[in-house]
Design goal:
Helices cover about 20% and strands about 30% of the residues. With about 160 residues, the protein is of the alpha+beta class. The chain has 2 domains: about 100 residues, Alpha-Beta Plaits (2-Layer Sandwich), CATH 3.30.70; about 60 residues, no CATH class. Strands 2-13-1-14 form a 4-stranded antiparallel beta sheet, with helices on one face. The chain has a two-stranded antiparallel ribbon with strand order 3-12. Strands 4-11 form a two-stranded antiparallel ribbon. Bound molecules: zinc ion.
Length: about 160
Amino acid sequence: MSELYQRFIPEDIDTILTQDQIDRIKVLDWQGNPVDIMIPDGIRFADAGAYFESVNCPFCDSNLYKFTGPDGELVHWWQQSMADAYAEGFFVDLNVTTPCCGKRTTLHDLNYKLNQGFFRFLVNVGPVSHELDVNAVSEKLYEITQAKWRGIQAIKR
Ligand SMILES: [Zn+2]
C-alpha cells in the first residue's frame, strides 16, 4: 500500500516566514487533506520517494546519478555529494561544482525528475485522499508569502 504526499517548499531555501504567514498557510483550502508544517532546526531534503527518476546537470544535462567519469568509470556523483553535504541530521553545505562541465551550483538547483529539493520550511499535505490543485495552491502560497514555491510529489510505501 503506497501513499501520496504533496509537499511545498520555498524555491529560495533561506526564505523566512512570519507567524502570520504560517497561520494563513495552515488555513488554506487543502481540499479535506491533512496538512502539517515542518520547520526543522537545519536544512533537510524533500525527496520524491518512488517518484524519483533522475538527477541531471542543469547546464549540460549530464546524468549525475550515474555519471561517467573521464576514464569511462561509473561515478555515483550525486549520492556522494549528498553524503558530503550531510552532517549530524542536516545538510550543511549545498555548494557543488558539476563534474561534467565544472560549473558552480548547489544540490538544490540540480535538475531533478520528479521535483525534489532542500528546505528549512515545508508544507506537508497527505496522505492525499482528495485531489489537490497544485497550481492553485502554489499561487495562494505566493500571494501569502511573495515567494516562489516548489511543489514536490512523493510516493511513500
Ligand atoms: Zn554539466
